[in-house]
Amino acid sequence: MIREIFIPGTVVNDTEGSPVQAHGGGILAIGGMYYWYGENKDGANVSAPSGQMDRLDVIGVSCYSSRDLITWKNEGIVLSSRPDDPAHDLHPSQVLERPKVVFCPATEKYVLWAHVDSPDYTKARVGVAISDSPTGPFEYLGSFRPNDEESRDMTVYVDPADGAGYLVYSSEGNATTHITRLAPDFLSVEAKFKRAFEREFREAPALFTWSGKYYMVTSGCTGWDPNPARWHVADAPMGEWVTGGDPCIGDAKGTTFDAQSTFVLPLLSEPDQFIFLADRWHRYNLRDSRYVWLLLDMSSGEPRIGWR
Predict the structure, then answer these.
(1) Residue 93, helix vs strand vs coil
(2) Is the peptide bond between 137 and the residue preceding it cis, with omega within 30 degrees of 0?
(3) Scanning 21, 239, 292, 301, which has the fewest C-beta atoms within 10 Å of its C-beta?
(4) What pLDDT, in 10s, does the model give residues 258-288?
(5) Which structural domain range is residue 46 located in?
């Protein structure tokens, strides 16, 4: 159904007729329901430290629910900004990006991870929040640098093979990607981490598994401007990652179809196919940024994303 109805790059409205605000996000599938989390950018652009109008004040993390990936109900803002506390990570003047939610079987809690930062991107931390329900509200627990290392663009991933959680994040000035295992309660990280794609300057990681191997799609570091995606493969999340080519087929401009990766969702009814979720950023009007969802096909043994 998704290939028939979802038109990439167009406005996606919720059941109330309002544009979906879930940018840089991901999807949690649980109990026959899909929950789409992302940055709420329903505000006007404001000036960045550079003087450019390419950011907006933090509003919070939105959640939408669906049973078919087409009709989305607005569940509201599940993690809100803190306008009354200028020192808080979630104060409107700060940065909140790439929220992802996972379910922790050990605690039966829903755990939200996100990139939290200062407007000049020197804070470089992850923030963690927790809830008893997928629709929140989430209680913010604080932020930290995993293993005292910078963390900017990030994602969290739960390995379907053993239920272990992993944090993947751009570090070392975005030059190298770090991968570390989450603690059993999914609220912190273990001390060991893997350095991957050294000096390759990759960001926007999106993980999935297929045929016993682990795959990742990333983008280059060009700010809001799109660039060619790359795919990577390993035998284990903290194993040796090998970089492949651009997964996008027929993308003549080399811009990931004018978008940037954020998540890969398995299509349970079709084992070789996944949904590739990406954001088409409108830099100077971020509230109008669009979503590009396309089928990612593994039938050739390598990730292939074509425009439909």
Answers:
(1) coil
(2) yes
(3) 301
(4) 999 999 999 877 878 899 999 999 999 999 9
(5) 2-306
Average pLDDT (202-230) is 97
| pLDDT confidence bin for 3, thresholds 50/70/90 | low
* Domain total in the chain: 1
Q: Identify the DSSP state of 219.
A: E
- Judge contact between 171 and 178, C-beta under 8 A: yes
Selection from 88, 138, 132, 133 nearest residue 112 by Cα = 138
pLDDT digits (tens, 9 = 90+) for 28-73: 999 899 999 999 999 999 988 888 889 999 999 999 999 999 999 9
| Pairwise CA distance, residues 185 & 259, whole Å | 33
Each residue of 110-127: b (16+ CB within 10 Å) or e?
A: bbbbbbbbebeeebbbbb
Q: Tell me, rounded to whole angstroms, the distance of Cα 104 from its chain centroid.
A: 18
pTM given for the model = 0.97
Residues 6+ apart with CB under 8 A from 300: none
Q: Are strands 248-249 and 304-306 parallel, antiparallel or unpaired?
A: parallel
Q: Are 155 and 133 in contact (CB under 8 A)?
A: no
Strand 290-297 and strand 273-280: the pairing is antiparallel
Q: What are phi and psi of 92, to 5 degrees?
A: -50, -30
Nearest of 242, 232, 228 to residue 278 by alpha carbon: 228
CATH number of the domain at 164, please.
2.115.10.20
SS3 226: coil
